[in-house]
Each structure stands twice: as structure tokens, then as C-alpha cells.
Amino acid sequence: MNDIKLALLGSQGAGKSAVLVRFLTRRFIGEYASNATRAVPQGSGARCIMEEPVDWADGFVVVYNISDRTSFIDAEDILRQIREARVDNCKGEVDVPVCLLGNKRDLCHARQVSEDEGRCLARGSRCHFQEVSAAESYQDIAGLFTQLIRQVMEHLKHRADRRRYSGSKSMAKLINNVFGKRRRSV
Ligand SMILES: Nc1nc2c(ncn2[C@@H]2O[C@H](COP(=O)(O)OP(=O)(O)OP(=O)(O)O)[C@@H](O)[C@H]2O)c(=O)[nH]1
């Protein structure tokens, strides 16, 4: 079986590493060096632009921090960019699986983004939504990745079936053209 490639995107400090480390190790590692983000805020910070199109990903996890509205606006922007890229690249194909994650649910006393807003954004972007806390819970994050991986595998299978089908259709057309023409010229 081929590897599955997932991209975790989101603004700086949203908790991408914490979510991933929680899933892979079941542990919450509170402090570690902050990576260069794959999606960076630019200019005033009101717009979040991906450094490069993520065309290698089979699925996306877009993370924001529920106690930071700017990170939610960034997530909105990232989802829009993913949507636009898939309109360009995947004509007629089933959408690439995407999950919107509202992280740091344990900080609900400092909440700036309601759960309804998250759900509403996900609905508009045709993606799954969940609030989680990388600090407090493994189960939610594990369940979420398991579901996303399942969706990605189904998506890849669907895409492979489609390619096989359109390949055999082209071959049938080619044979028809060649032999059809011959028959006419006899
Ligand atoms: N309270 C709380 N803190 C969290 C949670 N997840 C991450 N953090 C903290 O938020 C900070 C940023 O987390 P990171 O995982 O480094 O965030 P990131 O999105 O990978 O950040 P960059 O690498 O800078 O893009 C760290 O201090 C984490 O300990 C959470 O669920 N709850």
C-alpha cells in the first residue's frame, strides 16, 4: 500500500505540532521549538497565504486556536485556498478530504471563536469539524485522524478506479477509431 500524505496547516502557535505529537505518541509535549509554519501570516496578519501550493497532500488538517480569533480567520483563508486549488486541479473529482480542527478547547474561559462558528465554516467548506484539546485528550484526536485516514483511503481508491475507467474508455475509443476507419476504407 502507498503512503498517505496529510498536511497540517494553520497559523503560528495554533497547535499543529501538539496535535500531531499527541496522535503519534499519545503524549502532550508542552514546550518545544516552534517550526517555521507551512502557512504564514503576511502583511497585517489579516490574510494567511500558503508559502507554496500543497499539491502533494492526500488530505488536510486545518488547525486554529479557539482562544485566538486571528487563527480562525487564517484557517478560513487556508480553507478557501484549498478549495480554489482543488477546483483548479481536480476537475470533476471527489473533494480531497479536509478536517477543520478547533484546538485548545481547554482554554474555553478565553474562547474567542464559538463552536457554532467553527461548525458553520466547516459546513461551508464541505469538511469535517471538531474541537479538541491536544493538552487534555488523546481520544478525540486519535478518532479524528483515524476517520480522516479512512476517508483519504476511500478517496484514493475512488480516484484510481476513475483513472482505470477513463483509461479503458480511451482504449475502447482508440480501438474503435482504428478499426472503425479501416472497415470504412475497405
Ligand atoms: N492550553 C493548550 N495549549 C496548547 C494546546 N495545544 C498546543 N498548545 C500550546 O500552544 C503552543 C503552540 O503549540 P505548537 O504545537 O507549537 O503550535 P504550532 O501550530 O505547531 O506552532 P508553529 O510551529 O509555530 O507553527 C505551545 O506552547 C503548546 O504547548 C492545547 O490544546 N491547549
Automatic annotation (TrEMBL):
Q: Which domain of life is it from?
A: Eukaryota
Question: What protein is this chain from?
Answer: small monomeric GTPase
Q: Name one GO molecular function term.
A: GTP binding
Recorded hits in InterPro entries, A to Z, give: P-loop_NTPase, Ras-related_GTPase, Small_GTPase
UniProt cross-references to Gene3D superfamilies, sorted A to Z: P-loop containing nucleotide triphosphate hydrolases (3.40.50.300)
> What Enzyme Commission number(s) does the record list for this chain?
3.6.5.2
- What catalytic activity is recorded? GTP + H2O = GDP + phosphate + H(+)
Question: Which keywords does this chain's UniProt record carry?
Answer: GTP-binding, Hydrolase, Nucleotide-binding
> What's this protein's family per the entry?
Belongs to the small GTPase superfamily. Ras family.
Among PANTHER family, the record links this protein to: RAS-LIKE FAMILY MEMBER 11
Q: What class of enzyme is it?
A: hydrolase
**Which is one Pfam family of this protein?**
Ras
